[in-house]
Amino acid sequence: MTSFKEYRVYNLLLFIKLFAFSQWLQEQMDKITALGAFGDKKANHVLVNEYLPGQGIMPHVDGPMFYPTITTINVGSHSVLEFYTPLNSNEEMENNQNLSMRHIGSLLLEPRSLLIIQEDLYTTYLHGISQVTQDTVSQDMFNFEECKPKLGEVLTRETRISLTIRHVPKVLKTKLMLGRGR
Ligand SMILES: O=C(O)CCC(=O)C(=O)O
Ligand SMILES: [Fe+2]
């Protein structure tokens, strides 16, 4: 049984870890801001995702709610971010253009790397992560020449954590009208 004293020590350790993590995260956000990733704006939003081997994310666009730059710190396992052309017309939808026909390429996300996506890759193309447990390094990867693993190498996915850091413009100003007459 956990004593009250042990519980307090546990809570204190957790607090110290969270504090250290928030300091580290703020440093990374400041560095990304200093790169000019968001123009003259600052990073002010972080989304943490955990992916187990075989987990992914459906192709999507991040939409107009964010400044049009995605920056992602990749922690743990590698992964592969796939890019697809959008379905532009009814004709394409009727012809049921499947995902593999719309695939334009991918990026190998190496552990401890920073990914920055802007312009067309942000606004036009969809991005997603396939639900697979292994990836083969191929020429479909835009960055294969810059990466450590060599062409043809098979990489087994482990747990990956992504920290997606963005600038979210503050569009909504809520006014509290407490105690005011109508
Ligand atoms: O985890 C990633 O690298 C991608 C996440 C993503 O696309 C999103 O959260 O919108
Ligand atoms: Fe996304």
From TrEMBL:
GO cellular component terms, alphabetically, are: nucleus
Question: Which segments constitute the Fe2OG dioxygenase domain?
Answer: 42-169
User: Which InterPro entries does the annotation name?
Assistant: AlkB-like, ALKBH6, Oxoglu/Fe-dep_dioxygenase_dom
Q: Which GO terms describe its molecular function?
A: dioxygenase activity; metal ion binding
Which superkingdom heads the taxonomic lineage of this protein's source? Eukaryota
Q: Which UniProt keywords apply?
A: Dioxygenase, Iron, Metal-binding, Nucleus, Oxidoreductase
Q: Where in the cell is it found?
A: Nucleus
Q: Which residues form the signal peptide?
A: none
Which family does the similarity line name?
Answer: Belongs to the alkB family.
* Protein name in the entry: Alpha-ketoglutarate-dependent dioxygenase alkB 6-like
What is the gene called? Alkbh6-L
